[in-house]
Amino acid sequence: MKKILRRTYFGLILFLMYAPILTLIVLSFNASKSRTKWGGFTLSWYVSLFQDEAIMSALYNTLIIALVSAVLATLLGTAASIGISAMKPRAKTIFMGITNIPILNSEIVTGISLMLLFIACRVTLGFTTILLSHVTFCIPYVILSVMPKLRQTDKSTYEAAQDLGAGPIYAFFKVVFPDILPGVISGFLMAFTMSLDDFIITHFTKGPGVDTLSTKIYAEVRKGIRPEMYALSTLLFVTVLVLLILINSSPKEPADTKVTSSRRNRKQVFRLAVPAVLVILLIGGGIGYSLKNAGNASGEKLIVYNWGEYIDPETLDMFEKETGISVTYEEYETNEIMYPKIQSHAIAYDVVCPSDYMIQRMIENDLLAEINWDNVPNIQNIDQSYMEQSESFDPGNKYSVPYCVGTVGILYNTTMVDEPVDSWDILWDDKYKDNILMQDSVRDAFMVALKRNGDSLNSVDVNELNQAANDLIEQKPLVQAYVVDQVRDKMIGNEAALGVIYSGEAGYTQRENPNLEYVIPKEGSNVWIDSWVIPKNAQNKENAEKFINFMCRPDIALMNFEYITYSTPNKAARELIEDPDVRNSKILFPDQEDLKNCETFQYLGEEADNYYNELWNKVKSR
Amino acid sequence: MNHTLVDLIDISKSFGDQIVLDKLNLSIRENEFLTLLGPSGCGKTTTLRILGGFEIPDSGRVIFDGADITSLPPNKRNLNTVFQKYALFSHMNIEENIAFGLKISGKSASYIKDKIKYALKLVNLEGFENRLPDSLSGGQQQRVAIARAIVNEPRLLLLDEPLGALDLKLRQDMQYELIRLKNELGITFIYVTHDQEEALTMSDTIVVMNQGYIQQMGSPEDIYNEPQNAFVADFIGESNIISGVMLEDRLVEILGAKFPCVDTGFGKNKPVDVVIRPEDVDLLPPEKGTIQGVVSHLIFKGVHYEMEVQANGFEWLVHSTDMFPVGQQVGIHVDPFDIQIMNKPESEDEEALGVNE
To answer: Domain B238-353: which topology?
Structure first.
């Protein structure tokens, strides 16, 4: 009875530990894309995985980085172990402590520190920096597995070899090395495994266009999980599992002392075979891979840094085909993530697509290059009104070319709101208590209050700001919730009557729920503009201008508009839109009249930022 | 007389603050079996390691066959070492172990094969060529280590407590084996041990060391019978070391009684240390002894009885084939030539130095 209980408990723990991975493995063979329904067994996800060039290239990167860094770390770590083992006991303790710290150190700290170091040393982030980082964090693991072997090794065998006429190096490789070989091999496998499944450090030290499997999986998952990712994760898990089994089975050699010479040799051969096979696979794969990509290896290059899901990938292919320039495409999630990378000069991006206020900040900090308009004739396709709006952050239109634009307005449900909506005032109407949704971000919330009072949304006037804060506090009892993405879902679901929303999302909500209407209040609102700019340290400025010009071509702008669904400032592209409802949509293409009182956000400086936040906290905490 | 093979001249060596060797001088003759004997930490192993080239002395010179080899690396020296823990190469079989040195010196395959056969025969391990070291017993491993060293035909073989890890019976067998080997090969052995019996059995010359100094050097008989100071006397075999006064030539007073002896030249009424080996103490009926005492302890040791006798305030250690029961009144007699007189050391340093001649 006791035994059964014990086994059940043990089984339960094992099950709980492995249930998540088991789920993943099962899903990787599921013919249905659903995460809950079993649609039959299939290997098609594995097939399509191996046909995905981006993933295969990430796989190759992962393996080559893991192999090279493991080899380097094994060499350095073994040499270090020999040095440490020859030290006096006290120095040995100190050095072992020092080498152990990186293992205990939080990975994110290691990752950020390495990134900062590379930036400080002006090393361009890329393949090399990933490799260097991996070598760095792998060395302690090698030392950790070689040291015990060295400690067990009888020092007198080394002396005996010398005594018999061997020089120090010959003696080491002939006598000491075979003794520590199991430790070296398990150190190598450990380093290989660590490198293989590292994400955090790679994430911080990688450059554009270089992805390992883990960063690739992360980037893919951000866009939505594809079943291929289950297959890939399963393969990664199985690989790491096999490596761990190898590591754990290799050092337990001297247990059986009666092993005959030939049997032992066979064991050694097997253990040497593992790395050998890996090397052959990699070199073979590398040759195949480089042959396949030989066509792309021409000189012209371009590195694009853009928001996630902010371009039709097909337009990139078209650009490459038309110009012969090979494009490295990299994505970011927010302006704030993008900015430090540009500022640090860690990576020489050629084209970036920041928002209005960020462009202003970049101009102020002298990070942008002036665009040579002779190379961008297609600029004439951009609506003049957006060029004018751009002047608020880019005076004289020297640095930026508008790519996507949008406004902020009120989305309202016509079945719940009878009166005409044309003013922010309606958000302060008691009638709609608990039916109002506000944006949960400081600048958006204050924009509403400031604009309602006829003030600038970039106001730094203390009185105006205090007034706006008081108004927001007054409004708070009427507000159902301060939210970001849920405005869309709640409005579609008829859960609220009025919501502050970005125009880019308004079109989608209208298609889902025809009772919804979007309006830009007469007091004016925020108009945002994301524009192409060229960083000052761009290596391929002319290619960047070619790219921007290409993006301004009406057919290309139309493709991107259809892909992103945000408004395009490209009036020539707008004319090509076939659906008259879309072409004439007031949400997507507001009149001059609507935009009359609209402004773009500007960077207000640290002091003003802090004051905004202070007031916002006051509002939120009431 | 054979000519000198090795000369250690003014060798000093310290590790940190600890002085291990202080101006050591030692000559080793060709074809000699010389043993460095002393307690652990006496500097004997360091001396051997300096000879082997594993330590460089802080000062002094090592002359080998007329050439200065003080800073020559181990692999360039025409000598070989048998290590305390055998130091066999565990991933190589016996054949490969023995061939290691020969391969490095570039000998032909047939020569190596013959040599291995010869060496294994010499150490009685024929047929062990393909075994791995771990599958051999301690004694067998040690013989492989010896074979591995001697196939290189060194002029000098250094042995660092090679029998220390073996059990008693095996150790005794190996002692005879080593003597036989040395005689067959005709090479010089320098042997390090802390086991005085081992040293007495095998050596031509024993060098007793303590605290980095040579205490006494001589044949086993000299060392045993005429220890030059209390340290040597105490370290080599068991002894009764008693304070006494040299009244005149050939007469010493111990514990209030006068004993005739054979030593001369100490002067009159000089305080000395007297060494009497336990087997040299004769127990007689009380009235026949020089002094009288009572047996306080009795142990049967096989070959002899070991007794302790309380006499004139000193506990005498006695080995005798005759048995005297505990409580028995006995008389103690010592023959004059069995009494060894030594100068009293005037300080601790001197004790270590062994300056008394």
So the answer is: OB fold (Dihydrolipoamide Acetyltransferase, E2P) (2.40.50)
